[in-house]
Amino acid sequence: xxxxxxxxxxxxxxxxxxxxxxxxxxxxxxxxxxxxxxxxxxxxxxxxxxxxxxxxxxxxxxxxxxxxxxxxxxxxxxxxxxxxxxxxxxxxxxxxxxxxxxxxxxxxxxxxxxxxxxxxxxxxxxxxxxxxxxxxxxxxxxxxxxxxxxxxxxxxxxxxxxxxxxxxxxxxxxxxxxxxxxxxxxxxxxxxxxxxxxxxxxxxxxxxxxxxxxxxxxxxxxxxxxxxxxxxxxxxxxxxxxxxxxxxxxxxxxxxxxxxxxxxxxxxxxxxxxxxxxxxxxxxxxxxxxxxxxxxxxxxxxxxxxxxxxxxxxxxxxxxxxxxxxxxxxxxxxxxxxxxxxxxxxxxxxxxxxxxxxxxxxxxxxxxxxxxxxxxxxxxxxxxxxxxxxxxxxxxxxxxxxxxxxxxxxxxxxxxxxxxxxxxxxxxxxxxxxxxxxxxxxxxxxxxxxxxxxxxxxxxxxxxxxxxxxxxxxxxxxxxxxxxxxxxxxxxxxxxxxxxxxxxxxxxxxxxxxxxxxxxxxxxxxxxxxxxxxxxxxxxxxxxxxxxxxxxxxxxxxxxxxxxxxxxxxxxxxxxxxxxxxxxxxxxxxxxxxxxxxxxxxxxxxxxxxxxxxxxxxxxxxxxxxxxxxxxxxxxxxxxxxxxxxxxxxxxxxxxxxxxxxxxxxxxxxxxxxxxxxxxxxxxxxxxxxxxxxxxxxxxxx
Length: 702
Description:
- By secondary structure, the chain is α+β, with helices and mostly antiparallel strands.
- Helices cover about 35% and strands about 15% of the residues.
- The longest helix has 26 residues, at about 595-620.
């Protein structure tokens, strides 16, 4: 007879035995009875669709802790969907080891989260392996969710580390066996399940993005750093570099940008499937610190979280934030759509109404830059548009005694002022036509030669017609919004010439709407919401960057996308080899549209002046300085609550500056003493520039 010790040992062995799963065929039956696809189950269990297939055909078995979660799920389904002719049985999930309870619950809850069913990526997928190593800080719960498109079960991008782990969004970690760039590209397209669906039904899916850490770059044969005398964004691997040769030998191509910090590797489209992978190399400064503060130094899982949230809310990064901002415009307003050829009946690409089309368009001479061929070849000497953001400081002699005795100078910054100006902005979609002495129409976008020197403006305010705030001295070229504002002020305008556009539309509307939602949602994640009182809003803004550095980086990237995208509409020539009068690469884009950039900046500057004028009417206060979207006021206290106009009910007065997280509303940007501000003004310096750097829209390069 067995002893007590032997019996206990046998029982302990049973208790320690791994959970027993039902037969493979029963696993498939239970999943199908629950209406769950293999890809959806794979997403819930943080694995690949191919792994689920293997479990259901008996080729392999899951390992703990995924095994425990899988068994718990199957037991739950077995209780709900018993086999035909079998009596319902109670779940036996309690037999799972206690140590596996938490991961099992997490996986099961994820499995029941509503998601779009997914299908496996082409080719056999390697297991989506492991959770992050213990040394990696796990991504917080607010990580971007995996893409809802069944073709891209693992989201839009992954960050590849030197150990072969590819950190995707939603906490997924994939095994990447690639040891060369060519193998990486092929794995990404065939096995990774990465990518993102199109943002417009006439557009294109976003290519998968692989971000390489320094260790991953070295493992793939790339140098850890790019060195040279050129600007970092201009550096490229030489054409005779072994990696470039491997790419070409495998019949892959590089874009004209070559193999730089943002390398795009592709083959010509075959059928409907794009074959293109975007690479970003962290140690080559792919993520500019100004646009992505602190991101390059984060752990791979956190980098994937930051870029994943940006991809989910804005677009999968395709270069700098300026490039991404411009690409977003095209993604939301695709240049073509499918139209039926009346002669053949075939569907062919045709112009998409409301877009900028597929062909570049030369601007009118006053809208161009001095080095543009339109100007050089024609010998144009008629002047240019000067629609830029404010850079103005009030003359010290215009300060009164009361203003000088106020103890504080407070800076107010408008949230994404240029994004707010893009809302419902009607711009030209066709080529400009030249008119002599046209009657002014505020509904027609274009450039007008008009004399606004007769418009009287309070000298304590900047002129609304010039970036430096000085009064115009004669005829000059202005965008429609600037001329319309002179008319709004009650003055007659009589244009001498005009370059106007007949076809118009609100081209930037979807771009504005998507970026506004991204900005507001990200601020909300940082605790800055619309329902806060003004005092609560100011307190939340003081701490929002410390609440979650990852989401703060997303917010900075969204703001940089706005400014960079608008600036890139008038990208200037790059490189020392450029000669005046030559066409530079940016001119080949339909989105090289300096007139649209001018329209945004003109409207933003007019909006700023209108608020300045309303503030003077309501409060008697006049600004000390204005830099781009930041205005500095003298104040009796260190808070904008001490001078902003409020009604007796406590609500902000309409028309002036208001606090809030929405684009176009204000936030506190800086507080200094009045004596300090006056001292700067006496030296001809702008107090706004010393409170903050300013968010002017510059002409961006690559």
